[in-house]
């Protein structure tokens, strides 16, 4: 396969995985975006310019995650490798549980889709599978790619035969609020404290709450508080994100559906808007009073960000 274009632009949303009980399965696309512009070069050079989050920290050149994902996709479809000039405008915080690595992977894969002569060879099914190969699990990649709320799963029979995702309906009054700390936490560290086995009773509890969460998101947002209860991962992670879990506890005690976003340490609140969501940043919610009471005006390095739900997922286009 040949390259069909030499310039493209990709936009990918932030995501929150798990949403409480939906460990490694449920995810939500958030209206906060990274933008990547890529240009194929006639030389073998690789240049990566980063503006915004991670500008002075992420690796450049071939080690940059967008470049690695792009090359992975080109190899998959048998397209020639090329020199690259990437400009990344990052708004998704790094190391906070908001899907920054999944966004970079999806951005690279969709940039490859835009560059090759047959973009259909990198359709959503292929991109999700390639993203899972790079990420290890599809819970963030699925909403980043498809938008909205998603449930993702991998085939067990035959083993390793595919990765899939389905969109879930979301009630129009649900408004996610990210409470973002100043500190970071590596996903590997957060996953490293999880046990290899959990009690059968906790597994049964988790299955019920995951099913309830699908209903609460789509039709019964009044059930979001019980639907976001978790016994599978957040409690085990308390030692490595004590402040986040204390915030989750304080908000839930006040009736707010608060969970750890992904591997943390951001806390995600699934709030309910008091009216039509014209602008998420200014729309009153049922969580505003609890957040004000918990923080009391002293944010201590935390940021409260009212985010809409991204409805469409990642987008790409070729540039002239």
Describe this structure in words.
- The chain is built from 10 helices and 11 strands.
- It is of the alpha+beta class.
- Strands 1, 2, 3, 4, 5, 6 and 11 form a 7-stranded mixed sheet that branches. It has a 4-stranded antiparallel sheet with strand order 8-9-7-10.
- Helix 1 crosses helix 2 and helix 2 packs across helix 3.
- The protein is globular.
- The two termini are 21 Å apart.
- The model has no long low-confidence stretch (mean pLDDT 94).
What's the gyration radius in Å?
20 Å
Distance between the termini: 21 Å
User: What is the N-to-C succession of helices and strands?
Assistant: EEEHEHHHEEEHHHHHEEHEE
Q: Which structural class do the helices and strands define?
A: alpha+beta
- In what range is the share of β-strand residues? 25-35%
Overall pLDDT metric: 94
Task: Tell me the number of helical segments per DSSP (H or I, 4 or more residues long).
Answer: 10
How would the global form be characterised?
Answer: globular
Quick rundown:
Helix content is 31%, strand content 26%.
Task: Chart the SSEs and their pairings.
Elements (H helix, E strand, L loop, with lengths): L6 E12 L3 E20 L4 E7 L12 H13 L5 E8 L9 H16 L8 H12 L5 H6 L2 E6 L8 E6 L5 E7 L6 H6 L7 H19 L5 H4 L6 H4 L4 H12 L4 E3 L6 E6 L15 H8 L7 E4 L8 E4 L2
Parallel strand pairs: 3-4
Antiparallel strand pairs: 1-2, 1-11, 2-4, 2-5, 5-6, 7-9, 7-10, 8-9
Helix pairs in contact: 1-2, 2-3
């Amino acid at each position: 396969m040949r390259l069909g274009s030499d310039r493209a632009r990709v936009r990918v949303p932030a995501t929150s995985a798990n949403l409480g009980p939906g460990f490694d399965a449920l995810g939500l696309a958030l209206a906060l975006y990274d933008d990547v512009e890529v240009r194929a070069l006639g030389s073998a050079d690789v240049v990566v310019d980063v503006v915004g989050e991670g500008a002075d920290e992420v690796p450049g050149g071939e080690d940059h995650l967008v470049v690695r994902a792009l090359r992975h996709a080109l190899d998959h479809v048998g397209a020639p490798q090329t020199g690259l000039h990437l400009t990344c405008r990052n708004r998704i915080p790094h190391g906070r549980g908001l899907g920054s690595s999944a966004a970079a992977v999806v951005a690279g894969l969709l940039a490859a889709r835009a560059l090759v002569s047959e973009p259909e060879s990198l359709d959503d099914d292929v991109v999700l599978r390639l993203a899972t190969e790079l990420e290890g699990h599809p819970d963030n990649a699925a909403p980043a790619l498809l938008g909205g709320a998603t449930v993702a799963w991998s085939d067990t029979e035959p083993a390793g035969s595919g990765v899939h995702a389905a969109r879930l309906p979301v009630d129009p009054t649900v408004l996610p609020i990210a409470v973002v700390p100043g500190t970071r936490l590596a996903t590997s560290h957060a996953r490293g404290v999880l046990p290899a086995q959990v009690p059968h009773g906790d597994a049964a509890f988790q299955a019920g709450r995951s099913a309830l969460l699908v209903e609460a998101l789509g039709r019964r947002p009044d059930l979001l508080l019980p639907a976001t209860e978790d016994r599978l991962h957040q409690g085990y992670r308390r030692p490595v994100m004590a402040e986040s879990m204390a915030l989750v506890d304080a908000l839930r005690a006040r009736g707010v559906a608060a969970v750890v976003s992904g591997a943390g340490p951001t806390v995600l609140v699934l709030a309910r808007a008091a009216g039509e969501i014209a602008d998420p940043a200014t729309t009153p919610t049922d969580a505003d009073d609890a957040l004000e009471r918990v923080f009391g005006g002293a944010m201590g390095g935390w940021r409260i960000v009212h985010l809409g739900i991204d409805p469409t997922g990642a987008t790409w286009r070729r540039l002239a």
